[in-house]
Design a protein that fits this description.
By secondary structure, the protein is an alpha/beta fold. The chain is built from 5 helices and 7 strands, in the order βββααβααβαββ.
Amino acid sequence: MIAGELTVDGQTRTFALRLPDGGSGEIPLLLALHGNQPGVTGQIMSDWTTFDQQADAWGFAIGYPDGVGGCWADGRGVTTADEAGVDDVAFLRAIIDWSAGRYGTPPDRAVVTGISNGAFMAHRMGIEAGDQVAVIAAVAGGLPERLRGVPPTHAVSAMLIHGTADTISPIDGGY
């Protein structure tokens, strides 16, 4: 695991990047975004998923960014990161650029996945950073209401997973 640190809008932001074992050539980049939980970091996505093993099996790099205060400014206006005016789109764009510059991952074909607050943020990246994001995969989080009328600048493929019995992030929307 490679520890990364970037300064975005005057704020030091952290993340981890894992390269695949034996990967060579152009390696795709996947960013895995955690849900909203105070104090949580991207490490939780490594701990709770099999992304590391999948990265080795399929030959892709995986980034585990850390949200400010354990959350993302996903555009809904309900997280502490949103309230603080954090620019998470710029942060995630910077990780994509950093990885492309250092490890040759394509700067225009990243995959962004997330759960809950991370899923809402993945939707936001698909709309606002479609020039860098080719695919989003959102689990238990929808398109923020504020972004419903915003036309995307690029086509972005999406895989959406959401249960009808979800009471924390209802499939019909709301808080």
